[in-house]
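Fig. S4 source data, part A: sequence.
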Amino acid sequence: MLLSFLFGTAANAGDFQVDRNLYGKHPRLFFTKAGIEQMKKNALEYPQWVEELRKTTDKYINKAPDKKINALISKENFTDWAWTRLVNVSMLYMITSEDKYLVSGKKWLGVLCSADDWTVDTEDSAWAISGVAIAYDWLYDSLSPEERKAAVKLIYQRTAVTVDNGFRQNGKEFYWQQDGQNSVYALKLQALVLGTVAVAGDDAEFNVSDFEAEINTQLNFLQKWLPEDGSSHEGIRLWAVRELCLLRIGDAARNASGENIFQAPYFKSSGYFKAYLTAPDFKSSYYNRTQYNVEGICTAPLFKLASENRDSTLQYFAKKAIEKNPGVSSDPVWKIIWYDSALKAELSPALPLSRYFDDIGIVAAKSG
């Protein structure tokens, strides 16, 4: 099943605005409460995903991050704490209801919300906004009014910084701001969308209408940049980072407002950019002057794209990758959310032996 089908749609699709019917209700970013049961079923079908989450998360379950944000950044583990670990413990609490994950999630969320040196606007900050927004959304029912207030305030303030310094820059521009295919652009837009959708309508003190207007502008810009052939000029090495951000953006935007970027031709082809260049069950190669073939096991995007397009071949590629790498799960949280157990996994006999990605001038070929 598609978890996003559990949501309604806004009255004016194409003009981004969080549906008022979602105000005060959580979770809302990627699924509703009804969707949690489907995720539990996915976890039962692939218990290694939960085991991988437990194995990595339990190592630091009783630790707390430094209260100084810049100290964490200087140690190069800020994104681990504020994104990976915070999202992991929040997911584990939802699907296991084990208190140790809630305790850690609330503790880490509290540290981030009480830090007094949020002066940075970096890629780390964008990951942190996304992580705090997800934790707030998933743990909402277990947070006290004071904890909710603190989280909303932080998310709102840091989202405002992302808008002012990330997209507007007061007349200045970064290299990625005019490049809708850039992974940094996707990351910044993810922070803006998740931050806005997570807190919209939850506290009268914080009005997100300016954020919604900026999202509308950026979604229109993004869709004009996405190539129909599904390729990326950053190559396959950054494909997973950018694609995961785009899919989270698309899920949250549609669930919140009815704005459906998945209708863009890009999303019908992007899974094949991954599949042809890193497919696990046959030898493949591609070439241009700068890129080289790499192996990849990031399968959550394939599950999501397969589900969106009812594409049994992409489902086949994703499952084959898991079979080839049974002990490795690079993105278990998003597999649990996006895996569609009702979709068959079948390799289409009509799949061509080669595919030309003309937007970047790459030919990919498979051996049979």
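Fig. S4 source data, part B ends here. Confidence is low (pLDDT under 50) at residues 1-13, 281-296.
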